[in-house]
């Protein structure tokens, strides 16, 4: 479950949520508690930076994470860091707490230092250049080829005009972004194995906090990248992906797992699908 608090500053929250069920600040704030109590072990939070003082927002995020960890032994699985940007029908001049680039970089770095075991998500609101900087400061997940319009992907497929909720700054398609990630030494991963294997909630968090999660993350990243490249990449993309995969295979510490991953990768190249650890 991913749910944005939008802002932890209650007067601001009530100012920007003027009607509807989401207006109830306390009910929205405790949604993750109810999710855990209902058996949803993995929750992801975030705020919209620019609504209130970013120092307050970061502190509140960390206190919220600490509360969930203490009560349910599983804090935020992911934290998203969207930044307020221009949208139809609003003026940025109405918001006194807009976050400049330097402050935003500090925000990302501080959150990463505070919760090194938590995934951090960045959207296509940010520019190509800013996303590259923030990957080095702690972002671990980025979107690609996004649409911010209701029904936007279907409209894109039909080549219809877009009417987005807000404007996307990084408009590159997924293959271009993935290619650049590999150029910069990253391994793009499409893995969903933890959810499918039941490595969720406190079980996932114990592996993440100890660093042991890397023992399954790398093999799964290499296998899912192989599958993506085989199914969707052109010749040049496949060559780049297979080279990166070959360079990173020796990084799998367990010899048996490394051999099994290599075997699975060869099967995927021949048309097999859906291998994971």
Q: Your description of this structure?
A:
The protein is mainly α and 277 residues long. It has two domains: 1-172, TIM Barrel, CATH 3.20.20; 189-277, no CATH class. The chain has 13 helices and four strands. Strands 1-2-3-4 form a four-stranded parallel β-sheet, covered by helices on one side. Helix 4 (54-72) links the parallel strand 1 (44-46) and strand 2 (78-80). The longest helix has 19 residues, at 54-72. It starts with 9 loop residues before the first helix and ends in an 8-residue tail after the last helix. The model has no long low-confidence stretch (mean pLDDT 90).
Share in β-strands? under 5%
| Overall 3D shape | globular
Distance between the termini: 23 Å
What's the CATH C level of the largest domain? Alpha Beta
Rounded Rg: 20 Å
Number of domains: 2
**Uncertain stretches:** none
Percent helix range: 40-55%
Annotation, overall tally of beta strands: 4
CATH 4th-level superfamily of the largest domain? Aldolase class I
CATH architecture of the largest domain: Alpha-Beta Barrel
